[in-house]
Amino acid sequence: MNDGLARPLRIGRIDYTNVWPVFHHFHPNELRHPAEQVSEMPAVLNRKLREGEIDAAAISSFAYGISSDKYYLLPNLSVSALNRVQSILLFLKSPLEKVIHGKIALTTTSATSVNLLKIIMKKFYGGDPVYEDAEPSLERMLQNADAALLIGDHAIRASWQTHGYRVLDLGEVWNLWTGHWMTFALWAVRREAADKHPEAVRSIYEGLLESKSRGKRDLEPLVSKALRQIGGTPAYWRGYFSNLHHDFGPEQQAGLMLYFRYAKELGLMQNEVDLTEWPAVASGNLSPCR
């Protein structure tokens, strides 16, 4: 069976450790329908999904928000945290009082984190800094800036350095000011792909849920992979993976809708956001959790 597919469905995978608990045991070649996996930075996957170069992906929450009319959510999948996330970090060379009216160098790899920082600076601290895009190298970013935003594995590695900078975890700041979860990424599928090839999308979705379930039951394969590829200590990685949350229930949805509300209030996005689940799940035809 190929569900009428002219080509394999393409699913995008963010190349960061924070999605490993969902993707580690996901093997497209083992699915019932043809599928291919594309690994890229979040900003690239955001664009590829929007332009139809891929059919489904883990994408930045902000990217989902500005194109939510084109996508369905694959339910109960996210990258969320209640408090510290440990991989969305603002490194301060100058005191915070100067940073909020100074210059901040931004990673260009994730729209969600960049706009979360802008919300924090404006709504929480009353600041209006100048932002400039930069390649994710902490020392180069801070040569001409008061602070630097790093995300993902770049942030993790920089947090291990002995540099003397104050570090703000944006997940922690968000929770301190709002009391809410913060959701950094979602799994989305283009509506035309899901409507035209529901069985192929079902195969992908079930594969992701099963992979997430296996990853949650046993963190040690993820810890071992992180030690090999990135470094650090087993204790660090066990704490890191345990602190992340990959479901997307009412509490995570409430936190994300507040984020979208603030983004709209600040003019960072223009549209209202609808968290529309893939109807095959919403109608009860497929169990949304495992």
Automatic annotation (TrEMBL):
<comment type="similarity">
    <text>Belongs to the MqnA/MqnD family. MqnA subfamily.</text>
</comment>
<keyword id="KW-0474">Menaquinone biosynthesis</keyword>
<dbReference type="GO" id="GO:0009234">
    <property type="term" value="P:menaquinone biosynthetic process"/>
</dbReference>
<dbReference type="InterPro" id="IPR003773">
    <property type="entry name" value="Menaquinone_biosynth"/>
</dbReference>
<protein>
    <recommendedName>
        <fullName>Chorismate dehydratase</fullName>
        <ecNumber>4.2.1.151</ecNumber>
    </recommendedName>
</protein>
<comment type="pathway">
    <text>Quinol/quinone metabolism; menaquinone biosynthesis.</text>
</comment>
<dbReference type="Pfam" id="PF02621">
    <property type="entry name" value="VitK2_biosynth"/>
</dbReference>
<dbReference type="GO" id="GO:0016836">
    <property type="term" value="F:hydro-lyase activity"/>
</dbReference>
<dbReference type="InterPro" id="IPR030868">
    <property type="entry name" value="MqnA"/>
</dbReference>
<comment type="function">
    <text>Catalyzes the dehydration of chorismate into 3-[(1-carboxyvinyl)oxy]benzoate, a step in the biosynthesis of menaquinone (MK, vitamin K2).</text>
</comment>
<keyword id="KW-0456">Lyase</keyword>
